[in-house]
Amino acid sequence: MGRSFSRWRLSAGIAIAAAVSLTAPPPVSAAPVDLAGAIAAVEPAVVRLDTTIDYQHAIGTGTGFVIDPNGAILTNYHVVAGADTITGVVLGRPYTADLVGYSRSRDVAVLQLRGAGALPTAAIGDSAALAVGDPVVALGNARGSESPLTNEAGNVSAFGQTISAKDELTGSSSQMTGLIEFAAPVRAGDSGGPLVNAAGQVVGVTTAATVNFRMGPGGAGFAIPINDVMAVAGQIRAGAASDTVHIGPPTLLGVGVATGDQDPSYPGVIIRDVLPGGPAQVAGLKNGDVLLSIDGTGLDSATTLTNVLDRHYAGDVVDLVWIDREGRQITGKAPLTAG
């Protein structure tokens, strides 16, 4: 594809289609609070993340933060989704980062920095103790890893928010619920960064902004409550795989699907791109084929496809059923790989 994507393209591989308040938030009127101390407390533990996707020749930047002095990092999954290489920079020092595991539905990922030790860690707060009007500041990497960190201050405006999100890399879509809404102009590259309260404690993870991430003064950001994030992170670090938590790198079938022209009355997903040498090509899939099922699970969307693959691991051999461009139903086996 031969082009570099902007930060919005990768660190926000999620594009917000809508932001829906479950309850009408009351007006926020709080006196300005000096958050300099809170910023100074957390900033040393903030991680600048740079990613590359070799196949798409894509690069991106994002944010994370240290939760363990030996180099365990929290971030959004969409910041690192599909990345072949991840570099994390802490206090000016770069480290290669490995994906420990993730929850696609909660947009949480845990990374491990190779060879890290004695790193500063972010203090974790209690998101349940937040109230509307509380001052918060989002720390991030919106200006890129060669520039100072951003700090976008504002106030909590609502809880329990729901957004509809689309993953641009896979075409899958989902709803994220229970989010904190805060009035601050977060931007591309801030994804995965800490939302910090006035006491210098992390109370959320910035995951999205208003429609299409086109932010300006007065914009709104959305954060996953840190209580929810830490529960998922604990499961990942314990190696406890489930229907919603995948341990290790994603499982690769090696197909790209386009859902914009999909007829919902027909089963299957239309294959628009087959990775050369990947499992799908080995099985016999070609561009234009319609993939009907994986191991007997019917496919009706890119979302279902990614969810099925998240329950598999490298080395699994899955049965595929598809219809080729001549209308013939074909079966084959694909030995899945990590990717």
Describe this structure in words.
The chain is mostly beta strands and 339 residues long. The protein folds into two domains: 7-237, Thrombin, subunit H (Beta Barrel); 250-338, PDZ domain (Pdz3 Domain), CATH 2.30.42. Helix content is 12%, strand content 42%. It contains six helices and 22 strands. It has helices spanning 7-10, 36-42, 77-80, 226-237, 279-283, 302-310; strands at 14-20, 46-53, 58-68, 72-75, 85-90, 93-103, 108-113, 135-140, 150-167, 173-183, 194-197, 202-209, 221-225, 246-247, 251-252, 255-257, 269-274, 290-294, 297-298, 317-323, 329-335, 337-338. The strands form four sheets. The chain has a six-stranded antiparallel beta barrel with strand order 8-9-10-13-12-11. A six-stranded antiparallel β-barrel has the order 2-3-4-7-6-5. The longest helix has 12 residues, at 226-237. The radius of gyration is 20 Å and the shape is elongated. The two termini are 18 Å apart. Residues 1-31 and 211-217 have low confidence and may be disordered.
Q: How does the SSE layout of this entry go?
A:
Layout: H1 7-10, E1 14-20, H2 36-42, E2 46-53, E3 58-68, E4 72-75, H3 77-80, E5 85-90, E6 93-103, E7 108-113, E8 135-140, E9 150-167, E10 173-183, E11 194-197, E12 202-209, E13 221-225, H4 226-237, E14 246-247, E15 251-252, E16 255-257, E17 269-274, H5 279-283, E18 290-294, E19 297-298, H6 302-310, E20 317-323, E21 329-335, E22 337-338
Antiparallel strand pairs: 1-9, 2-3, 2-5, 3-4, 4-7, 5-6, 6-7, 6-14, 8-9, 8-11, 9-10, 10-13, 11-12, 12-13, 15-22, 16-17, 17-18, 18-19, 18-20, 20-21
